[in-house]
Amino acid sequence: MALRCLPIWVCPQTPHRYPLVGRRVSLWECSSSPSAASQRAVTAVEGNGPELKKASDEMGLVQEAKPVAFHRDLSMLPKPLSANSVYSSAGDDSKVRISFQGIPGAYSETAALEAYPNCETVPCEHFETAFQAAELWLVDKAVLPIENSVGGSIHRNYDLLLRHRLHIVQEVHLPVNHCLLGVPGVNKEEIKRVLSHPQALDQCVNSLNDLGIQRLSAKDTATAAQTVASSGKKDVGAIASVRAANIYGLDILAENIQDDANNVTRFLILSREPMIPRTDRPYKTSIVFSLEEGPGVLFKALAVFALRSINLSKIESRPQRRRPLRVVDGSNNGSAKSFDYLFYIDFEASMAEIRAQHALGHLQEFTSFIRVLGCYPMDLVR
């Protein structure tokens, strides 16, 4: 059976970019005419080589067609991925590489291992380097601290979230356990000076004052532990994590010496690809936006969430670096200026929910810029 061409006339009833009225077009239909045998289509299958060659000769083709072999065992063909298979493969962290700022033993590394116990951690000198490592495919994900229950927000990392194109895919709430470390065999009464990150020192003021220990700043807690281990001095200690003590061979002289027992640091796990939002568990969505000028515009922006019973768990404002000031009054008496801000918001809803989609659509009415930083499962309080 072959195909032959019959002319038909087409007259569309609706306007078209390329009108067909008065144009002659062709439509293919089936025919069993022997004269059209040279136009028949031949499908290449395994063991059909001679017939394919003959058909090619009849059609006047110069090149010789080669037979194409197909799989006979359909079970060997790759199966299409489903949403469930994507989530199950995400749980296999044996080959996940995660970048973090600091050296081995840092709290950021502990947070990465909390999220992916079997991952390979990659230390980076700076936070920005950790971002770049993920963007350049040197690692799969990056981890960074974003806020502490005592010290507050880490503003530098909020700026980096906007500067880079990574997506938040997970959060980790890590309870802080500041330990007083010393070289093997030393007692805590022998410690006269202690090294650590300035924030860690501030969080242990009362304990250090009770011991009469002088405080010295270090780049980070893990570096302080490494420095004490390298020096071998018995009168110098460090404030760092249990993991840092194990890595650098130091004794733990005291645990949980932080002044606030409920000291928690929130970390974010970042990836090149966003997470597929779902509704099977509590989700959180992080966004950043700037507002148009007008009275009560911030109230209107926040009201879009309240109207839909969406809880806001975090609000952070940062001045816009490229346009920090906005002119308010250009009169002859001078111009008053106000700061122009970016607003970072975390709200407790999944982007898979209609109410969240409607809230963001409503929010766009008041914003000059908006970006979703990530939608990810909430890390519930342990």
From TrEMBL:
Residues 286-377 form the ACT domain. The keyword Cell membrane does not apply. GO terms for biological process: L-phenylalanine biosynthetic process. One of its GO terms (cellular component) is chloroplast. Pathway: Amino-acid biosynthesis; L-phenylalanine biosynthesis; L-phenylalanine from L-arogenate: step 1/1. Pfam families: PDT. It comes from the Eukaryota. It catalyses: L-arogenate + H(+) = L-phenylalanine + CO2 + H2O; prephenate + H(+) = 3-phenylpyruvate + CO2 + H2O. It is an enzyme of class 4 (lyase). Its EC number is 4.2.1.91. InterPro entries: ACT-like_dom_sf, ACT_dom, Preph_deHydtase, Preph_deHydtase_CS. The keyword Plastid applies. Residues 97-272 form the Prephenate dehydratase domain. PROSITE patterns: ACT (PS51671), PREPHENATE_DEHYDR_1 (PS00857), PREPHENATE_DEHYDR_2 (PS00858), PREPHENATE_DEHYDR_3 (PS51171). It is found in: Plastid, Chloroplast stroma. One of its GO terms (molecular function) is arogenate dehydratase activity. Its main location: plastid. Keywords: Amino-acid biosynthesis, Aromatic amino acid biosynthesis, Chloroplast, Lyase, Phenylalanine biosynthesis, Plastid, Transit peptide. Converts the prephenate produced from the shikimate-chorismate pathway into phenylalanine. This is Arogenate dehydratase. It comes from Brassica napus (Rape). The lineage of its organism: Eukaryota, Viridiplantae, Streptophyta, Embryophyta, Tracheophyta. The gene is BnaC08g15080D.
